[in-house]
Amino acid sequence: MRFSKLRLTGFKSFVDPTDLIIADGLTGVVGPNGCGKSNLLEALRWVMGENRPKAMRGGGMEDVIFAGAASRPARNFAEVSLHLDNTDRLAPSGFNEADNIDIIRRITRDVGSAYKANGKDVRARDVQMLFADASTGAHSPALVRQGQIAELINAKPKARRRILEEAA
Amino acid sequence: MRFSKLRLTGFKSFVDPTDLIIADGLTGVVGPNGCGKSNLLEALRWVMGENRPKAMRGGGMEDVIFAGAASRPARNFAEVSLHLDNTDRLAPSGFNEADNIDIIRRITRDVGSAYKANGKDVRARDVQMLFADASTGAHSPALVRQGQIAELINAKPKARRRILEEAA
Amino acid sequence: GRERLLTAFEQVNTSFAMLFKHLFGGGEANLVMVESDDPLDAGLEIMCQPPGKKLSTLSLLSGGEQTLTAMALIFAVFLSNPAPICVLDEVDAPLDDANVTRFCDLLDEMCRQTDTRFLIITHHAVTMARMDRLFGVTMQEQGVSQLVSVDLKKAEALVA
Amino acid sequence: GRERLLTAFEQVNTSFAMLFKHLFGGGEANLVMVESDDPLDAGLEIMCQPPGKKLSTLSLLSGGEQTLTAMALIFAVFLSNPAPICVLDEVDAPLDDANVTRFCDLLDEMCRQTDTRFLIITHHAVTMARMDRLFGVTMQEQGVSQLVSVDLKKAEALVA
Ligand SMILES: Nc1ncnc2c1ncn2[C@@H]1O[C@H](COP(=O)(O)OP(=O)(O)OP(=O)(O)O)[C@@H](O)[C@H]1O
Ligand SMILES: Nc1ncnc2c1ncn2[C@@H]1O[C@H](COP(=O)(O)OP(=O)(O)OP(=O)(O)O)[C@@H](O)[C@H]1O
Ligand SMILES: [Mg+2]
Ligand SMILES: [Mg+2]
User: Fold this and answer.
1) Do D40 and D5 contact (CB within 8 A), yes or no?
2) Average model confidence (pLDDT) across chain A
3) CA D94, chain centre distance (Å)
4) Tens digit of pLDDT for each residue in A118-155?
5) Quick one: average pLDDT of C53-75?
6) Which residue from D80, D34, D82, D85 is spatially nearest to D57, judged by alpha carbons?
7) D5 vs chain C: nearest CA distance in angstroms?
8) Taking each helix axis from N to C terminus, what angle separates C97-113 and C63-80, rounded to the nearest 10 degrees?
9) Which of A151, A154, C141, D67 is the most buried (most CB within 10 A)?
10) In the predicted model, what is the mean pLDDT of residues B146-156?
11) How large is the average pLDDT for residues B138-167?
C-alpha cells in the first residue's frame, strides 16, 4: 500500500484544489516562512483521522477551514483526500479488494467531519484503524511536526517513554 | 558601565584560559555544532550569579567544571571573570568608584562558589544586585538561550506573562 | 504592584505592535491579558495578523512567523529598559533568508537606539555577513573549545 | 504488556546505539529506563557520549548534538516498524552543514532499507540539493498557498 497523492481543498491556506504527488524516495518541500509547508503535513494527519485540534495548532476542529484572505471570503468546508496505490494488495483486510484506496475527509462548518473510503461512508474509527494496521496514522512516530524534536529533547523521562510505546 | 571582556578557565569545554572581547555593536559567534558557542552565553550568565543548575543544562552546579576530554583530565575548579569598563561612572553605587569593575566567580569541586569584585570577596547576592541595578543579570530578558523563543511561543498564557514582569 | 505591571503592559504593547509591523512589513498585532481580571494573575495572549492574513492567536501562525512575532515581543520588553548586553543564541534558526534580513535590520536599528553591545550566535550565512566582527569557536582538539577571530570568508568554511 | 515493551526497548536501544555511532562518526549512546522498576511506569533517559567527549545525559549536549541524537532515536523507532510514509518538518534547522550532510546520508540509507516514501520540509540548501525532486510552496496571492514543481536552481531563489 503506497501513498501516492494528497489533494487539499479549502484546507487552511490551500483554498484552491491542490494536488501533492507523492513519489518514491525523497521529496523536498521548500518555500518562505508562512507559505503553507507545515499545513501540508497537517492535511495528511487530518485525513488519516487526527481528532485533536491542538495537534493542528488550532483551538477547534473547524480552524482547518480556510478562514479567508485579503481578496477571498472564508469557506464553509474543508476537504482532503488521500489516494493510496494498493496494487501490491498489502492493505489491511476490509480495504484490500481494490487497486486503489481513496480516503476523503470533509468538515463542514457547524456540521462536523465526514469520512468516505472509495465512495462509501465510513466512521473516523474505520479510517484510523486502516492506517494503524498499515503501521502509520495521524500519530505515527514517522510524522515529525515542526518543533517536535525539541519537545522530545526537553520532555521529562516519563513523557519520552511514550515514543517507545508507539514502537511496541 | 560597559561589558568589555569575558574570560573562561575550566568552564565547560573551555578548559584553557580563553578571552572573549566584547566590543560595540554586533559581534557574531559562529562554529559547528557542539563546539562551545552556547557555553559562552552560559559563562556570562553564570558569572552574573546564575544559581539554577537546570538553567545551565546541568544536574548540579558542579556540572560547569571541565569534565575532561579524550586527552585531558577533568579539572577540579572552573572560573569566569567579567571585565566591565566603568569610565562613564554609571555603575550602581557600591561599585562606582573605579574605572574598571572585575567580577570573578570560581567554583571548586566539593567546596562551592566564591565571588570577588575588584579583588574583594563578595556574596552572590551582591553580584546579583549589581547587575539587577544595571538592568541586566543572569535572568535578563535580553539574554535569549537556544530554544527559549520556542518555549515562549509554546508557553501557557500565565507562564508568558512572566516576561512582562521582567519589564515592570 | 498592579499599577506598575499595567503601565509596563501598555508600554510593551505599544512597542510590540510597532515592532511587529516593522518586522512583517505590515499587519497588526496586540498583547491581550486573559484568564483573569487581576493583572497579577492574568495570562498573556498574543493576537497577530500578518499582512494579508486573518487575525488569529500566535499558535495558528507558521514556525517562522511565530519566531518573528516572539522577537517583536522580546525586543519590545528590551526597549522598555535596555540592557547593556544582549546575547541571542541561534534565534534566527527558523527564519528564511528574507526574514533573517529583516531581523538583521532590526538589530541595526537597536544599535542606533541604544548603547547595548550584542553577541549573536548563529549558523546563518546572511546573519554572519551583517555582523561588525566575527569570532569562531572551534574544537580542534576533541572536547576542548578555542576562540579565534575570523573574517567572513573563513567563517563560512568554519560553519560548513 | 510488559514483555512487549521490554522487547521493543531492547530492539530500539540496539538500533539507536548503532544509528548514533553512524550519525556522529563514533562515540556511544544508550537508552536507560529510569524512575521505576516497572517498564510500564518508567521514564526514558538518554545517555550519550559524542566522539572525544564525556558521557552525559542528553541535556548537557549542544543543540545540534541533541537534535542528531533525537534523530537517531526517532529512526530507531521507525526501523522497528517502518511506516509507508515519513514526513519530517524542518528537523534539520539546528544542524550545521556537516551534520545536515550526515542527516541526508541517513535518509539515503533509509531509502535503501525500506519502501518508505519521504516528504522533507526544509529551509536548508544542502538538504534541498540531496532530494530526488522538489516542490515549492508559494503565496503569490496573500494568504493563499499554491504548490509548484521546482528544479533546484529555482528552489534556492524561492527560499531566499
Ligand atoms: N484556516 C486557515 N485559513 C487560512 N489560512 C490559514 C488557516 N490556518 C492557518 N493559516 C495560515 O497558514 C499559514 C501557516 O502556514 P504553515 O505553517 O504551513 O507555514 P510554513 O510554510 O510551514 O512556514 P514556516 O517555514 O515558517 O514553518 C499561516 O500564515 C496562517 O495564517
Ligand atoms: N563540564 C563540561 N566539561 C567538558 N565539556 C562540556 C562540559 N559541559 C558541556 N560540555 C560540552 O560542551 C559541548 C556543548 O557546547 P555548546 O552547547 O556550547 O555547543 P554549541 O556550539 O552551542 O553547539 P550548537 O550549534 O549545536 O548549539 C557539548 O559537546 C558538551 O559535551
Ligand atoms: Mg512550518
Ligand atoms: Mg548552542
Assistant:
1) yes
2) 93
3) 12
4) 999 999 999 999 999 999 999 999 999 999 999 999 99
5) 95
6) D34
7) 34
8) 0
9) D67
10) 94
11) 89
For chain A, list the contacting chains (3+ Cβ pairs, <8 Å): B, C, D
What's residue C69's pLDDT? 98
Rounded to a whole number, what is the distance in Å from the CA of B91 to chain C's nearest CA?
11
Query: Residue type at C147?
Result: L
Ligand 2 contact, B93 CB (< 6 A): no
Per-residue pLDDT at A91: 86
b/e per residue C113-134 (b: at least 16 CB within 10 A): eeebbbbbbbbbbbbbebbeeb
Residues C106/C71, Cβ–Cβ less than 8 Å = yes
Q: Judging by beta carbons within 10 Å of its beta carbon (0-12, 13-18, 19+), is residue A145 exposed, middle or buried?
A: buried
Q: Which of D121, C20, C127, B103 is nearest to A38 (CA)?
A: D121
Atom of ligand 1 nearest to the CA of D143: 5
Contact A8, A37 (CB under 8 A): no
High-pLDDT (> 70) share of chain B, %:
98
Question: How far apart (Å, rounded) are the C-alpha atoms in residues B7 and B81?
Answer: 5
| Residue B53 pLDDT > 90 | no
Do β-strands C144-150 and D28-34 pair in parallel, antiparallel, or remain unpaired? unpaired
Pairing outcome for strands A143-144 and D85-89: parallel
Q: How far apart are CA D11 and CA D20, in angstroms?
A: 14
**CA neighbor of A29 nearest in space, from A39, A37, A21:** A37
Mean pLDDT of A89-115: 93
pLDDT surpasses 80 at D58: yes
